[in-house]
Design goal:
18% strand; globular; 12 helices; 6-stranded mixed sheet; 5-stranded mixed sheet; alpha/beta
Amino acid sequence: MPARLITVVACAAAVLAPAPVGAQNFPQRALRIVVPFAPGGANDNAARVLAQKFGETFGQPVVVDNRPGGATNVGTDIVAKAPADGHTLLVTNSSLATNLSLYKSLPYDARRDLAPVTLIFTTPLVLVTHPSLPVKSVRDLVTLAKARPGQLTFGSAGIASPAHVCGELLNLLAGVRTIHIPYKGGTQALADLLGGQISFAFTGGPATMELMHAGKLRVLATTGPKRFTVTPDIPTIAESGVAGYDLVGWVGLFATAGTPVDVITRLNTEAQRALALPDAKKRIEDTGAEVSTGTPQELGAFLAREIDKYAKLIRVANIRPE
């Protein structure tokens, strides 16, 4: 083949070859945000906030793909096995940390197969009791639980749910023995708490605040390491006498491991910019959460700490999935 023809063919091949995915030409097509939960709720809301803002910024369609099932493992596995180009993203919560200890076999490894992008929000749960229970503080509750071992009960949306884990952490750190009552959903647990069938619960969201203001629930404390900005007058469990208590709900954004660093960086930049906008911030806060972003490295370190924390708690409390 003549040298000139070889040159022409080589140039044509270079033009026709797909351009490598990088921040300068990202995204090249529609983005897909997988949510491993059914539509509705704080996780889904966060994904839709980002989808709208990413669509405006990137000029490409952004689809929210709800893939519930398998305790979030179905949707998570989809992203873990997606092409590592940043076009398939995951919005998920603390189940990413707990599932590593709850299940003997998973089709993915969260530490190996996913790339952290940014934390989206954090939210503490709220420790609440029925007004008839003779306690007005966490100290009162601990004292009563020690006087009545195995008699106080707490409800949750199910085994290994955030509210269940919160109760077991209280048992562990306060040295008490209260009994977990699993329900098929948080609404049922709250209904029984309002009816006085269980002693206390860990819950959250605007609905809890409304019930508190109506005098139907007594709020004792929040579960985070510091007071929640949405309810600054409510103390934390740690400052109420249970040293070291720190457990918050969270939602983060992840990509597939191996996604180019500059694409991860751009996704992080645009997510932080979007979540700082007043309308996006309000949509997050309306679900009872607090926008809390950061670098990919910070989310990675946070996830590692969460994995270690839950592994210890799940082992000590002998929590097993349903």
